[in-house]
Predict the 3D structure of the following.
Amino acid sequence: MAKRTWALVLLSLMTALLSGCTLQTPIDGAQERVQVMAALNSWVRGVEAYEMDAMAGDGVMAAGFRLTIKEGMSTETKDLARLRSEISIDIDEQALLRMTKGYVIRLDIDGSAAAMDVPGVMDSINGWAVATIVGSTAEATGSFEVYEKTTSIPEWRSDSGFISVGMVKTTAGWKMESMTIKFGRCEYRARASSAGMAGMSAGGFGFGTYTGW
């Protein structure tokens, strides 16, 4: 029986080779989705902590990464070098802001069907929608809300919008290849109300409005 089984395997292999086909290991879509989500959520935590490596380090961004920011009629595109330069300029100020003002920012991603992912309310769930995973590429989207607070200012919902991310799988795991951030209440797909805040910094990813020094 064992000899017959091996003979069938060899016959199948020879048939595939002669027909010009190659045998491929099937992709575990569920496992890849978990890894993509983990990479996205790690980036969110990096934004909230304002940590360079977690936001835009080599382990997060692919070499050709490009960021597009849209707000109203304005569109701005940044390559990875410019993004890192803008982030580095604000690192010391952001650290001081957190230390002296107790500044906290929450980038809340909405869009999943999870019971605790509530549009229009800050929650601990990041509800990314991973739309497609094809080979070594993936696409993910999510509406977002930005919540900020300091020791002297209560929590406020300072911004909202929509993010789309292009991912690529490398030998080091899933990395971001492109990102488009659309700011504005009309871009927030859940259509939740937003107070909005003027004076948003255009540096880095553009999240955060607090300037109350």
Observations:
- The first helix runs from residue 2 to 18.
- Helices lie at 2-18, 29-49, 52-56, 80-101.
- Residues 2-26, 190-201 have pLDDT under 50 and may be disordered.
- The CA atoms of residues 67 and 78 lie 5 Å apart.
